[in-house]
Each structure stands twice: as structure tokens, then as C-alpha cells.
Amino acid sequence: xxxxxxFLLCVLSLQHAVVVIANNVVKRAALTDLSExxxxxxxxxxxxxxxxxYMIDLDGGIIPGDxxxxxxxxxxxxxxxxxxxxxxxxxxxxxxxxxxxxxxxxALWSDKANTTLYSYGGRGASDTSADEGLWTYTIKNQEWKLxxxxxxxxxxxxxxYTNAPDIxxxxxxGGYQSSDTTLSITDKTVDYAAGMIQFNTxxxxxxxxxxxxxxxxQGALVYIPVGEQGILVYVGGEVxxxxxxxxxxxxxxxxxxxxxxxxxxxxxxxxxxxxxxxxRTEFCAVVEKDPSSSSYQVYxxxxxxxxxxxxxxxxxxxxxxxxxxxxxxSLDEGRMSLTCAPYGRQIFGIGGRLAWADDSExxxxxxxxFVYDSVSEVVREEFDPALSIYSVxxxxxxxxxxxxYPASWADPALASLFIxxxxxxxxxxxxxxxxxxxxxxxxPIIGGVVGGVVGALMLLALIFAFIWYRRxxxxxxxxxxxxVQLNRDDDNLVGVExxxxxxxxxxxxxxxxxxxxxxxxxxxxxxxxxxx
Length: 532
Ligand SMILES: *[C@@H]1O[C@H](CO)[C@@H](O)[C@H](O)[C@H]1NC(C)=O
Ligand SMILES: *[C@@H]1O[C@H](CO)[C@@H](O)[C@H](O)[C@H]1NC(C)=O
Ligand SMILES: *[C@@H]1O[C@H](CO)[C@@H](O)[C@H](O)[C@H]1NC(C)=O
Ligand SMILES: *[C@@H]1O[C@H](CO)[C@@H](O)[C@H](O)[C@H]1NC(C)=O
Ligand SMILES: *[C@@H]1O[C@H](CO)[C@@H](O)[C@H](O)[C@H]1NC(C)=O
Description:
- The chain is globular and about 65 Å long.
- Strand 25 and strand 26 (295-301) form a beta hairpin.
- A four-stranded antiparallel β-sheet has the order 1-2-3-5, with no helix packed on it. Strands 7-8-10-11 form a four-stranded antiparallel β-sheet, with no helix packed on it. Strands 12-13-16-17 form a four-stranded antiparallel β-sheet, with no helix packed on it.
- The chain is mostly beta strands.
- It has helices at residues 7-15, 394-402, 412-418, 426-429, 431-434, 521-526; strands at 45-49, 52-59, 72-78, 83-84, 92-95, 103-104, 107-110, 116-120, 123-124, 135-138, 143-146, 160-164, 169-173, 176-177, 190-192, 196-200, 206-209, 220-224, 231-235, 238-240, 244-245, 250-252, 257-262, 267-272, 284-290, 295-301, 315-320, 324-328, 339-343, 346-350, 369-373, 378-380, 382-383.
- The relative contact order is 0.15.
- The protein is built from six helices and 33 strands.
- The protein has a domain at 442-526.
- The structure holds 2-acetamido-2-deoxy-beta-D-glucopyranose (5 copies).
- One 2-acetamido-2-deoxy-beta-D-glucopyranose (NAG) is lined by residues 425-426.
- Residues 1-22 form the signal peptide.
- Keywords: Iron, Membrane, Repeat, Signal, Transmembrane, Transmembrane helix.
């Protein structure tokens, strides 16, 4: 409705079939599916709601049959029947309302009732757009709207995030602002966030929560429904040497512990883990529950070694509450910068790169999504909604049975979330009771309501204290040093997607080399043999 305020815009957005540009060149119609092929995109926002896998942050820049970086697609896969993930005709595409900024690397969250999607964060595609806030997509009427809020978190990228629709919340931890996220940074400054954001998907309230280990980038955050409101588990990530500045050095966190957040108690615990796992960055993570052992497996899929930049095939899982790592069957090919979405035992891996590069060296793959079957531990060619439910391998089940808990807990209160007070000793059993009513004392809370009325979302702000909410003016332009390691082959960027001064974004910069820019033919020319 808002987008249709001007009648002409309305007509254009409804038709969007053929656009006549100034010099009378008729551009190709926007795609309705991927029958003509795909190449790659990093990084999608993805979420499964009501048996539909929604994917955002796809432009047409290097997609055969489109090749228009200004197109901004919503892609949908219907999960009610079996299909081959390599069948391009199954990927239903529609153009996102043109008023929505074209971004990459956003979080895509959903509400408990499965009526609304929320996109937050991300980096600019082709250029940096004004940071207006979080956008909502109402599934029923396919309408995008800016969520009206007088105070809101700034746009961040490179954070870890998770959706927890059962408790009507979504979380974002860490990440940073740079010239790719905000117009107020014009040099290579990277401004890291502190803490964690909770977004209540029912009320629209943002809450600033503590995270004792920020600043940090990357890593993964997952939700596990234990205890009163559930816990968040954070794994991996890199810590910058300075919170705000240029040329920060990044140090990867060790993988022999995870950070666990008890939502109801508003408390973090640093819990050690056992057995080994390959440390990595730009991976994805999802949770699978094993009903028979009441354990939760946090699968980490792909990624890349931060120091060697080698892309990983590895799939491993952390079993909780034993907090022990296991290795599962690998992917068929390495994949980094991917997004994951679980549907029962089948885990969709979406988008990403085959190599740590910003140009055509990042490779092409057949279609945006593949399916990793966490029971058979292989990549399947077919998605099948009828597959049986998840269970852990029997060797793991035996292991969990023999030692269900870690040898040493970070805190008795953490143990109490997993060990029923009735059946445990008093020392561990008491903590969960004490925690009952501490949830209301969380950091600064933004009060408000989200009205469901068209064009009339309201947010009444009380107080806000994101410490990364800053403004600065810079003099020079450029990419961001946080991921300067991505920029290894700057000298040889002729004919590839990225301008040399653009350290990271596929979409960044102002040249036709960009994967997403109007002149995207350069990549198709240079790396045409890779396009399938
Ligand atoms: C929302 O969609 C998910 C994914 O399809 C499903 O598991 C869940 O049960 C749905 N919730 C509601 C309230 O319909
Ligand atoms: C979000 O708001 C709803 C409605 O007020 C509330 O029931 C729910 O507990 C809130 N979620 C969290 C995680 O606080
Ligand atoms: C950042 O590193 C580059 C390349 O090493 C150097 O030229 C530049 O002076 C550094 N900037 C700052 C602010 O340290
Ligand atoms: C926990 O205690 C209850 C009540 O004493 C009992 O019925 C239940 O079987 C116990 N559960 C376990 C896992 O021991
Ligand atoms: C817990 O402590 C109380 C008194 O402190 C005692 O009466 C009770 O038996 C204890 N229960 C267990 C399960 O140890």
C-alpha cells in the first residue's frame, strides 16, 4: 500500500515485466524461475515458514537469462512435495518491492504465527543505501513495509543471528558497521557492535542484551528450547584488535568452548566442549533434536579456515547437553559463506562461495540450494518431505547414553537447565527456580507495539542504548578492513566482479565489474565457462 502511494509506481511494481530505459533499450523481463541456470550468490537471507523456503538478497547480476544487477529477487521453494534441488523451475522468483533496499547478507526472521518475515542487517548491493531500519514482508498479501520505529538498531553486517519463533523472538549478536552498511562511514573504518539485540516479533520491541564477549564478527548463534525460555548457543567468531577503527587484526576464537545464553535468566556461560572440530569462519549452523536421547545436535556446515582460507567440506555437530563434538559425513564440495535452514532432518545449504575470493574465482554451482541429510550424512539430490524424523547415529546415541553431561559444567545453573530438578541434587536443582523472574531486568528496553494496520506500524520508544549507535564523518572511500583478507588478488581484478578498492562486497563499488552491477557481462565474459 505504501509503495503504491504513487499510482505509476504501483503499475510498475505490478507489471515489472519489461522496463524501458532512457535510451530505448528494452531490458529483459525479470525471471520467474531459474530454468536458465544460476551461478552463485553470497549471502542469502533464508527462512522456512509454512513449508516454504524463502530466500532473499538475490540480484540478477550473474544469473543467466537475467544479468541485471538492479533486479532484487525473492525466491521461494515449495516444500510440500519432493523435488530435485537442481531443478531450476522449482525456484519461484518474484521481484522485491523497489522501495526495499537491495542488500546482501541479511537476517531473515519470522513471527510465531508464520504470517510475517523480517529482514534486518546486511551490506549494500552496488552501493550503500540509507539505513531506514528493519523491513517486514507480509506473506499473505506479499507486501513489503518499513517497520516504523522511532528508535531502532542501526544496520549491522557480519553478526551471528537466529530465529526463535516459539518464544516470539529473534537475536543478533556482534557484527559491525562500515561504509557498506551506513552512509555515515565513508572511509575504511569498521565499527564493531557490543552486545546482542533481541527483537520481539510480536511486539516489535528491540531489547539490548549483554554479551560479555563482544566485539566479535561471524560465528554462529542457534536457539535450543530448554529451560524456561530456551538458550542461545554461540560458537566460533573472530575478535578484532580494536572495536572501532581501521586495520584491526582479527583473532579467531578457539573451538574448545561455546558461549551459552539462558534467555530467561539473562545470563551467559562459557562452557567447555570436548573432542575436536575444525575451527572455521563463514559457516552455517542449525539444530537437530534427537527425541530418543533428548539431545540437541548443533550442526556446523562448511565454512573456511580463517588462516589458510581453505574452504571446508566438513560437517560436524556439537551434541548438547554432553557438549561433545562429532564428525559427520562431508559435503561433496567445499562451501563457505552459506546460509542454512533445517526442515526436519534435511538441512538446506543456501548460496555461498566455492572458494575464498571476491571474483569469478568464487566459482559457480548449479542452483542456490542443496540438501544435506543429517541422518544419512550425505548431500541428497532430492528433497523429500516424507523422510523420517531426525535421529543421531547409534554410536553417538551410545556415547550420549554413557556420558550425557560434560565432565565439568561452567555453572550449576547451566546444568540445571538440562537436569531435571526433581531428579537431581539440590545444588543443581535450585538454580532454575531462582532464575524464574529475572527476565524483566534485561538491559535497556524499547517499549512499543507493532500495529497490524496497513501503513500504521507504531513503535513507542522508551530508551535505547546501543553503544554502536554513532555517527562519524570520513574523508575517503573504500571497503572495510575487517575482511581485508578477502582481498588477496586485488592486483588481478580485471574482468572480475570487484573493483580493487572494494575489499569485500560482491556488490560494492561503482564499476561494471561488480557481480551485481548493470555491466555484469564482464564476469560472464571473463568466467563464462563457469556459468552453467
Ligand atoms: C510455521 O512454519 C514452520 C515451518 O514450516 C512449521 O514448522 C511451524 O509449525 C509453523 N507454525 C505455525 C504456527 O503454523
Ligand atoms: C514477546 O512478546 C510477547 C507478547 O508480549 C511475549 O508473550 C513474549 O514472551 C515476548 N518474547 C520474549 C522473548 O520476550
Ligand atoms: C592501514 O594499512 C594500510 C596498509 O598496510 C596502511 O597503508 C595504512 O596507513 C593503515 N592505516 C592506518 C590508519 O593504520
Ligand atoms: C524423575 O523423577 C520422577 C519423579 O520421581 C520420575 O517419575 C522420573 O522417572 C524421573 N526421571 C528420570 C529421567 O529419572
Ligand atoms: C534437598 O534438600 C532438602 C533439605 O535441604 C532435603 O530435605 C531433601 O531431601 C533434598 N532432596 C534431594 C533430592 O537431595
